[in-house]
Amino acid sequence: MKLILFKQIDYRDxxxxxxxxxxxxxxxxxxxKGAKKSNSKSIAYCTLGNEYNYICDDxxxxxxxxxxxxELVKSHHHILDSLLKIACFNCLLELSxxxxxxxEIITDGLYINLNKALDLLEKESHELLVLALFMAFxxxxxxxxxxxxxxxxxxxSKIVGLSIDKGGxxxxxxxxxxxxxxxxxxxxxxxxxxxxxxxxxxxxxxNLVIDFSIINCFNxxxxxxxxxxxNSYEFLTTIGNF
Length: 242
Ligand SMILES: [Zn+2]
Description:
single chain, alpha+beta, CATH 2.40.50.140, de novo design (two linked rop proteins), two-stranded antiparallel sheet, 35% helix, binds zinc ion
């Protein structure tokens, strides 16, 4: 079974439980016995963000599979070269974990999008663009995609800001003092592009210098409309001096 690991949990003295997403966009868990022993060979199969092919012959029988060996499909170890990459990586993994919190909920496209995001983070230097596109994907899947074509209240296409509470762009008549990106036309445009785009458009978006307020707005959207709080977000703001 191919999977990308997004979470590790200590279990008993020597064991680890790893959680990941498989190619069918299902959350899967494996118990890796003895992974924390000093001479453990299985610890090489527990690296977060890596894609593995685990041996699995007990499908649909038990909720927690027992690790019986596997092979590395793809490593993303260059992400560890930069603190900003690590901070974005932590947000990606935590968001993936929270997108499939319940075993029954299947987030269609999560495997492909997480894989793509990790590949780009590994090779490119557009960390904030990668994270922004992944957050936009998450908002879409949660059904909380921001309205970015016209004012959320009146259909006016002359917009001046973004209202997190109302769920999208607002015109001058419907703008309130706490709205974000007020009269910051370039950043409003960026926010619109990101919401319209996917990882397939990455090349075209590479010349954008993503303003951190974009990430901040997505984080607020996920928080207020998706009830998702990213604990790793604070580290990102610290690292980037945002
Ligand atoms: Zn309006």
